[in-house]
Amino acid sequence: MNNAKQIRRDLISRVAKLLEDRTLVEKIDRLPLEMRPRNQKAIRCCCHKERAVLKYRTMALLGFNTTDETDELMPLSEYAKQAEKRTKEQYTPVQLTVVDEACSSCVRNNYIVSNLCRACVARPCMYACKKDAITVTDKAFIDHDKCVNCGMCKEACPFHAIIYQPIPCEESCPVGAIKRNENGIEYIDDSKCIYCGKCMVACPFGAIMEKSFLVEIINSIKEGKKVVAMVAPALAGQFQVDMGRMITAIKELGFYDVIEVARGANETTRDEAKEFLERMEDGEPFMTTSCCPAWVNLVNKHMPEMKPFVSDTPSPMVYTARYVKANMPDAVTVFVAPCVGKRSEVYRTPEVDYVVSFEEIGSWFMAKNIDVMKCEPTELDSSINSDGRRFAYTNGVMQSVKNYVEHPEAIKDIVISGLDKATIRTLKGYVKSCPGNFVEVMSCAGGCVNGCDVIANPRVATRQVDNFAKSMEEEKKD
User: Fold this and answer.
1) 0.85 exceeded by pTM
2) CA 402 distance to own-chain centroid
3) pLDDT of 121-177, one tens digit each?
4) DSSP of 142-193, one letter per residue?
5) CA distance linking residue 75 with residue 55, whole number of Å
6) How far apart are the C-alpha atoms of 102 and 139, rounded to whole Å?
7) Quick one: 261 and 374 in the same domain?
8) Do 99 and 138 sit in the same domain of this protein?
9) Which of 30, 64, 179, 207 could cross-link with 68 by S-S, CB 3.0 to 4.6 Å?
């Protein structure tokens, strides 16, 4: 937890409370003023800027991009009215938005000369620079109009006086989808973005927000629709309580039913194992998993040469949504997700109506004063194979498939835990020569337990998910 996350969760909780009380339109304009009163010490330059930042962050929670603003004087209440009338078809698929007002404090240049510079006679930094961007008088100076950020001067300096100062969001993006525009504000190129959420986590100013479906979800519940929550396996590690109490707490939010997506994960395991064996019989060199949406987005947008090797098997979310729709055709399906990637998957999955994040669920509990610890546990579905519950962490998918096939030794596994520039280069190399025949790819290091919208320590969450899976296996034996 950090202060930027704390502010975001407070904001989500307040918006959820207004939706629950059906006072969103009437009271939302006062929300930035209530969160940043005039007499409270400002974190930024003044309360007025902080209120502006809160306005744009609230727009994201209402399902808008900051670029949707056509009139700066339009109040939040007008956006709230539009959000309440909006249909799913009118909801744009761009899921991440940069709050301009909040994105203003990062350095514009990566290499900076510190006070450690001794203006030495050798001038190694000058001679290392191939662009003549460095001059030295009483201290080295970098002309950033000439500098190409190669870093040769930093390597050459014997005093370590030249430092590399990264821009956190740009540094974290594995595909170069976020860059500064001509005004020095970061811009996300949707044609490149894979929705891994790494930039949102990295930004220390809380300037990157994901759009929310909260308005649609809560209003659907208020309208009496059969809204079904489909909970990702990683949820079992988030709130330090058993899954039975977690499901009860979600039902208390107003959901008609709560289904474990581990059910769908079992189907993914079955079909992915079958597909793997068929591909190997056909002489294909290898196959990769397909359940991580950021990985699928990466292939579709940046690695078309890898597309033939990605499994065609749908994700656990898709199988679970199909199960819900088959049994309740009029149900509104809501996936409870650990990451923004799943929001992007909705747009190629007609069976899933909306997504709500772990972070939003936690803030929603606060809005409704639900104490998860005090909830009575719901009886869990004993028919679910716990291999599906282990999809939440790295190697979980691989182990599930190995446990399913008759000859697991035939699987020469490779596990990619976290997408970054280095692992992407490695994956591109597999097209020509792959050292294994089955590759599990997870965008987040450690798996879904470390998604951009989780609220628990990933190591603790992994342990808790594994303990949950083991306890359910023991119950089956008894």
Assistant:
1) yes
2) 28
3) 999 999 999 999 999 999 999 998 899 989 999 999 999 999 998 899 999 999 999
4) E-TTT-----HHHHH-TT--EEE---HHHHH-TT--EEE-TTS-EEE-TTT-
5) 9
6) 33
7) yes
8) no
9) 64
